[in-house]
Fold:
Amino acid sequence: MRIERKERLEATIMHADLDSFYASVEQRDNPALRGRPVIVGGGVVLAASYEAKAFGVRTPMPGREALALCPRAVVVKPRFDAYMDASQAVFEIFGDTTPVVEGISVDEAFMDVGGLRRISGTPVEIAARLRERVATEVGLPITVGIARTKFLAKVASAVAKPDGLIEVAPGTELEFLHPLPVRRLWGVGAVTEAKLADAGIATIGDLAGFGERGLSSLLGPGSGRHLYALAMARDPRRVETGRRRRSIGSQRAMGRRPKSEADIEATLLAIVERLGKRLRGADRVCRTVVLRLRFDDFGRATRSRSFLESTDRTDIIMAVARGLLDDAMPIIRDRGCTLIGLSLTNLDDHNCVQLTLPFEADHGADLDIAMDRLRNRFGRDAVTRAVLVGRHHGDDAPMLPD
Structure:
């Protein structure tokens, strides 16, 4: 039996998003940077202040291109510990605001403030107080969008940036949404946007007017149905708390400099080491490994492979990741590689795995646990593989718990 979710009568879903998070923390902690174009990261732009964005600087643009666009930009090294401290402080304010918080990343979250009117006021009043607290207690600008759906709340916060607040009042959703460009829709990337443009579709209103049947013919039934629903402001998803990740991943930008196959493989192995430790630390197991590549011509490719049984073993994950890289190496030789990423998907809790009898002695799991303990106690590089000795593959960006 299909259960229809009732449409909200009030706009009670908020999307809160810290503005240029890393760069804002740097400007907060160093008054000399305030009002100046700031770029966080060296070889690749990790974040840019709005003063730098005004010159066209974007993430993850190569640092050389960013400085060509904005020669006066101040480049600072990332301080991930400072960003994580700021994120935790902001999320404490989120939790004080409402018990229904769904973290999306370290700098953004959805919140549901339905039912709080009598004790906290209207959603706009709640959002205004939240913004004031984040500015006063953490010293950072934050933008909030309010709407009846998660999708529309996120669009509203994007439109309100920087340091703004927008409520999309019930009944005005289509009036707000339809003049916006189609790239505001979840699921519309560069390829889909170009395909829509060829069909004469530039705005969300154009897309809605094209109709679900026309979009399904143009983009396929799944994408057509999805985009038409969003264009009509339909999004039944609730703000969910306590939901665990469906995948974990990491990537490294490698720049446009020439790099050997050994460098690329070493970068992949470093990513596998860190993801394996994260997987075990969260008591999860994975079933699928996904390799993502970006080439010198900005093209992308994805390769994936699944296991017969879920695992958290670094050696097993590494063998599959190496195999995927070996398969992709002919393309890399031809087109170069500027980014390599790995995701572990089809996650499950560790205690959901069917145990097998140990017919053969295998100490791989014990080795993983021993290495995890050494790294937790003495640091990430206390013990490493020989191929990674003397190499630095970048620090891990802050992230929500796995």
Q: What stands out?
A: The chain has a mean pLDDT of 87.
